[in-house]
Amino acid sequence: MPVAAAHQPLRILHELTRGRRGQLALVVLLSLVATAGTLALPLLVSGLIAAVQTRQDLLWRAVAMSVAALGGAAAAAGSSYLLARLGERMVHRLRSRIMAHVLRLPLRTVREHGSGDLLARVTADSAQLRTIADLGVVQLPTAVVTAVGTLVVMAVLDPVLLVAALGGFLVAGLLIGLVVTGLRRAHTRYQSALGRLAHRLTTVLDALPMVKACRAEQRLSVQLAQASHETSAAALGAVRLEALMSPVLGLGQQIGLVAVVVTGGARFVAGSLAVADLVAFLLCLLQLVAPIMMISMGAGQVQAGLAARGRFDEILALSTEDAGDPPHSTVPLPSDAPAVAFRAVGFAHDQRPVLRGVDLDIPRHGLTALLGESGAGKTTTLALIERFLQPDTGSVWILGRDSRQWPLAELRGRIAYLDQEFTLLAESVRANLTVGHLDDVPEPELWRALERVALADAVRALPEGLDTVLGGAIDLSGGQRQRLALARVSLSTAEIVLLDEPTSQLDSGNEELLRATIDTLAADRAVLVVAHRLSTVRHAAKVILLADGQVQASGSHEQVLLTSPAYRELLAAQSVASR
Hints:
Structural class: alpha/beta
Largest sheet: 6 strands, mixed
Number of strands: 10
Strand order of the largest sheet: 6-7-8-3-9-10
Mean pLDDT: 82
Order of helices and strands: HHHHHHHHHHEEEHEEHEHHHHEHEHEEHH
């Protein structure tokens, strides 16, 4: 799998503070204010108790306690909100970055990962990254500072009691350390299982009409349930480890509390410890639980975020299609070169040869029909022209230049393409017609394109006309969607037009309209059609027959009909099928 050498692993702190260093500084300042209030409270309580015993003034001490408590709470709330806002902005940037990166990956790479897995990385994994920002950048370090500061205060109050209290927490800390080491692996397994489940569900939903027609809902529901069970099993592995955190920490707190009460009581009876210091120490002990809980639970959540970061890095490290693109060339294109030329082109899918030493030329103008049995390599031929795929051997020449010497965006700007799925976006009719256009297309031109494919009346009947969003409750029929895709192609100014079975869902009347549209396109550019209908074949200026991964015949319809038995057999089979 190609890897982009320039990619560096995500640096969450860098992403979080990009253009927001002042806000992060404010978050840190507020966190320190909250920590100072927390640490001051036990000492202020101790002073208040001592003042009560000695009958000193209590007002300023009570005010100081209120300021420390309320100020610390307000600072903590402000810090949490600002940090969450920074984290969400970071996630938005990273999510946008990975979506843009995925769209530029080679088709083969996208199919290897699966759309569902990529969807899970963009959604679930990006949300997990927030835990690193929310916890790992400020809150965990603040919790560490609070815990250390509390221990220092406890040491000042009574070092002997501190040793007694640490015994219980030390046992808990060792156990929690063992748990955290396994959490990252558990979260990685869970996120991978979730991606597989999302991919399986996506593929089933994409094929839902076929699923219903075959009455396969029950069988596929069982398979999806099994995939969901595997995901839950992976999640439970992490949950089991996380569930140990709170009880272990509670056990440590109880051991420490018992040790402090017993030891503190003995020292109080012996006159070595004042009651104010004992109360303050107990407050510190109770106060110590919150930062330690944050450290232990937060460490587990950060492990999940780090696992998500690893999955993000894995995608961002994949090489994009345009990696290593050559610069724009100012050398004029030869005017006498074919629109497309294959020279000894070989290509294999999963080590299964599809094309073997193919040589063919597509004229600069006119209609060329590409024929062959299913699996002969017709769609692969179009994909190689578009550079969706790269040939294993040989070369593909576009307008007189090796396709590898074209910048990818410039190459595809010279080619218009209609796939056999007549794919549309879940956007408005206008957006589907103008996708790929850098400038606005005048509305009259859009209506003329719809008129050419006999779709204008159907679009006018939609609730919002050109601005009606397709998909969901409002959609076009299969044939109408195909004609809309053809209208989009007719708006293109590309010099090469590739049509993959454009008449598959058209009736005879609409096929005549399509032929007129193709004739208009072919008058001043190259049109290559993967065809099955006899009318399209007979209408073509040139016919190319693929069989067994090679060009079996090439020439006009009449020439190939006279010289190729395989061509005559294919036409006879199509004629029978059409009847």
